[in-house]
Amino acid sequence: MIYNDLSGLLAPAPEPQDLWAGNNKIPWNDPDFSSRMLEHHLSQDHDLASRRTELIQEQSAWICERLPALPEVRILDLGCGPGLYAPHLSGPGRKYLGLDFGPASIAHARKHFQDPGKTEFELGDMRSAPLGVPHHVALLLYGELNVFSPEDCRTILASVHAALEPGGMLFVEMQTQEAVEKLGQENSWYATPSGLFSQEPHVCLTQGLWYPEQRVALQRFHVVDPRTASLQTYDHVTQAWGAGEVEALLDYMGFCEVTWAGDWPSGNKGLKLITARKQS
After folding, report:
1. Where along the chain do its domains lie?
2. 13, 26, 6, 27: which is closest to 231 by C-alpha?
3. pLDDT tens digit string along 166-222?
4. What is the 3-state secondary structure (H, E, C) of 23-82?
5. Protein fold of 43-176+242-278
């Protein structure tokens, strides 16, 4: 029985052409998973889901120093999580809109940070959700674009471009190619009484696979319930982009003044920030 239940550990990896088909992301929008993920977002012990407060404050100050000098600046934060940047980016003369796919994150953000007409949050998929009135600034932080297919990246950037005022600013934080490749080469495991993938005791076996021609990392999280020997596998796909490819993509999507920000306080050498403007 155990062999039959755990035989999924030996299931073949997806073919390269199938990497972006089907379930290629961990279930961000599942209510139970989202609730467990929220605990990681709010943790001050690590930066695995959201940055810790001190770094969020430092990054927010960096962004605020570069906001346009206008009577009112409208900021769009895509993949805002539980809204931890909102209190630092909103305020007099600023309006903030956060969008995220996780229901527990948005519920937390609305409870703690929403201020109607000034700071608001929407639950939605950035690939298809309406992005509201024209904004002066758009944020895509913490490697958000890397977890989408190149086609979806173009869709997202087209929507962002349309949602920005002429001359509007874009801040995109990308995972480096080296960081993504590392994801596809690491294998690990842990046992826990409760964790991200289940509130019950479980063992998680993480399998990394690297597809060099596609420059894609596949992480397979094999979650085993030791009481029943049942297995649930979650796939998560991450696309590597070279610096020149990111620059070319933004240029193709209608952005100009594309510049890598060497002084961005990322707190992680595997993440780099690039800035751009919508052509006037």
Report:
1. 2-27+179-239, 43-176+242-278
2. 6
3. 999 999 999 999 999 999 999 999 999 999 999 999 999 999 999 999 999 999 999
4. CCCCCCCCHHHHHHHHHHHHCCCCCCCCCCHHHHHHHHHHHHCCCCCCCCEEEEEECCCC
5. Rossmann fold (3.40.50)
